[in-house]
Design brief:
Number of strands: 8
CATH architecture of the largest domain: 2-Layer Sandwich
CATH superfamily of the largest domain: Protein of unknown function (DUF541), domain 2
Distance between the termini: 63 Å
Number of domains: 2
CATH class of the largest domain: Alpha Beta
Mean pLDDT: 80
Order of helices and strands: HEEHEEHEHEEHE
Shape: elongated
Largest sheet: 4 strands, antiparallel
Length: 264
């Protein structure tokens, strides 16, 4: 009987120790779980970069047509005109690689017999076969002029040399990838500056970048006034009149990026 209070004390101490141990274990597990499942704090910012450049390439199109009693004579007529134009283009500095044939068509030409119409205005289809009267050749050419100051003179001269449908004069930038890379670099710098200001306002500091993407749909190409101008010439005479006034303007290459940063 004298040992009963002692046993009770021992049991109480063991119970308290077990509760303390269980509490410590539970706290440790919860603490580890907190860091195991919690995501890092991040901020997201966007940045925009723009680069302005003057177009350095002029491109235009024209066609050459030839007709003859047979296919060879029609082709020879087109070939003679093209030889003269190609020789001129080489003389003014246009490289062979910058003169490209878009299409070349050789088609027969037919003469269709008239239908015998009755007094009521009805014209039944003629039973007579159409007559082959010759051939026609159409060759379409695109020309890239790297010296844009010569574009007006070249296009008017080509029109005088027998080219037809001289059209589509446009001014563009030859190597746009270089401009895209420069604009992207500016956009990233812009985003970084915004992130640093935001982190300072939040009394935090940037640890690392953990996400990067650019706007869907690729890069936006915005044209300044006068840039990428397309001019249509219906005749060689109108080409001569307009050759002296060809504004180039400026192209604007724009890149927008979105970047997320981990902060602490």
């Amino acid at each position: 009987m004298l040992q009963e209070p002692y046993v009770r004390k021992i049991a109480a101490l063991v119970g308290v120790a077990a509760i303390v141990a269980l509490s410590a274990y539970t706290y440790s597990v919860l603490k580890e779980a907190k860091y195991m499942f919690s995501e890092p704090t991040t901020i997201s910012v966007s940045g925009t970069g723009e680069v302005f450049a003057t177009p350095d390439i002029a491109t235009f199109n024209f066609t050459v047509e030839g007709k003859g009693d047979d296919a060879v004579s029609a082709q020879n007529e087109v070939a003679e005109t093209m030889d003269e134009i190609n020789s001129y283009l080489l003389d003014v500095g246009v490289e062979e690689k910058d003169v490209k044939t878009n299409y070349y068509n050789l088609t027969p030409r037919y003469e269709y017999p008239d239908s015998d119409c009755d007094g009521w205005g009805y014209c039944p289809p003629s039973r007579k076969e159409p007559t082959l009267i010759g051939y026609e050749v159409n060759q379409s050419i695109s020309v890239k002029v790297r010296d844009t100051e010569k574009a007006g003179e070249i296009i008017s001269t080509v029109g005088q040399m027998g080219a037809m449908n001289v059209s589509g004069l446009s001014f563009t930038i030859d190597d746009e990838d270089v401009l895209y890379a420069e604009a992207r670099e500016k956009a990233i710098d812009d985003a970084r500056e915004k992130a640093e200001v935001l982190a300072e306002n939040l009394d935090a500091h940037i640890v690392r970048m953990n996400g990067y993407w650019e706007e869907d749909g690729g890069y936006a190409m915005e044209y300044g006034r006068g840039a990428n101008t397309k001019i249509m010439f219906d005749t060689a005479e109108s080409a001569i009149l307009q050759a002296a006034t060809l504004p180039l303007g400026e192209d604007t290459v724009t890149v927008q990026v979105n970047i997320s940063y981990e902060i602490r």
